Amino acid sequence: MTPHFGLPEFGFLLRGLQWTVLLTLVAFAGGCTAGLAVALLRTCGHKGVEWITRIYIGIFQGTPLLLQLFVVYYGLALTGLKLDAFVAVAIGFTVNASAFLGEIWRGAIQAVPRGQTEAAMALGLHYSSRMRDIVLPQAIRISLPATIGYLVQLIKGTSLAAIVGFIELARAGQIVSNQTFQPLLVFGVVGAMYFILCWPLSWWGSRMEARLALASQR
Amino acid sequence: MQDQILIEMQGVQKWYGGYQAIRDVNLTVRKGEKIVLCGPSGSGKSTLIRCINRLEAIQQGSIVVNGHRLDDSIKAIDVVRQDVGMVFQSFNLFPHMTVLQNCMLAPIRARRIGKIEAEATARRYLERVRIGDQAEKYPAQLSGGQQQRVAIARALCMQPKVMLFDEPTSALDPEMVKEVLDTMIGLANDGMTMICVTHEMGFARQVADRVIFMAEGQIIEEGAPEAFFRNPQHARTRQFLGEILAHH
Q: How far is it between the farthest Cα atoms of chain A?
């Protein structure tokens, strides 16, 4: 007989939710770290380095994420490097996120007025201090709405991890739905879980955007 | 030591692509001298002072600041920037820091001075530009004139040997011009070596030792303010003075 959607099924979805959150956190943390490096290299002033970074961004923005996950999971396995599904998708999402966040922050760094850098240089501040103390604090504020928007996309995008057999929230929902034949109920719950994660972030992002718009009017 | 040379520019040339911005400029600035640079817009006067602290690179010629030859090495640029303070037309205060933090950052980071000493120095210079009571505010909370005085204090905190002013009053509402000029006059009276790009001819008459007129990237004429204003030698200078003095 087919089981009904009950507490055990709900628990299974919750574990899927846990993996979704964990994968998002790892991908976002990794993407932020690598993305910062991408953004700094992309604006470093060295033509060769800027070109290489531009190509890197172009490749990961210009090909489907699904394809990138395939390459990391199956492609690396062919070279003898067998990765755990979680590790593989975490690497795939990190690299992909680094390209998108790197490009968002590149724009934000360049949006900080040139006069800020000039004043810092005139005061004798070195590159590291100019970035850490002057440019990045302002760039991060500028990029916050777009960064939060990307995070929301990332949360929902982690459902692609199911393709290499990783059981996160969407895949867990599919499994439960197949067992219970209650797709509307199950996917309703799954949808609500995504919504509870994403909506507060979106709300925070648009509030940040409104505040920034107000600040730039002054 | 009044004759000590602080800045020596020789045969300086600068191009932006095919456009020559600075043409064979020679300029010597001695300790304590106050120089006003004037000229029509696009004449290269801002570019020229921006070459002194290497915000702009030159293609030919040499610049020596306080005995240090400015070349492409980071070390030379560092040494020179420590000796040269700059005030910009658009203030360029750091908007995410308080007035006090604006003044403390460079001494701590570039001069490696302790926090307590840096704060004491910052407060002293903020008092000197008569803005000590605004130390905890953010730049956006101040008027343009106050912001520019903070920018002057911020530069002074690095205890520079020379101060460069790049049209410091051009972005200000008329009623705020005087407070900034008064601050600059005070600085001049204390013996600071200064190069000011400005159209404030009253200021030039009052404090300048030399007024230099530039056009098309060249120094056309220079002289003591009295002679410069009363009896300019070149037609180009007369035309320029006629244009700007007509408004005053």
A: 77
B86 touching A, CB under 8 A?
A: yes
> Which A positions 151-190 lie with beta carbon below 8 A of chain B?
none
**Chain B: residue whose CA lies nearest to A135:** B94
Number of residues assigned to chain B: 248
Q: Which of B26-40, B169-183, B201-215, B232-246 has the lowest mean pLDDT?
A: B232-246
Report the distance separating Cα A133 and Cα B109, nearest Å: 10
B2, pLDDT greater than 70: no
Q: Under the phi-then-psi rule, with left for phi > 0, alpha for psi from -120 to 50, and beta for the rest, what region is B190? A: alpha
Buried/exposed code over B186-214 (b: 16+ C-beta within 10 A; e: otherwise): ebbeeebbbbbbbbbbebbeebbebbbbb
Residues of A in contact with B161 (CB under 8 A): none
pLDDT in tens, B110-159: 999 999 999 999 999 999 999 999 999 999 999 999 999 999 999 999 99
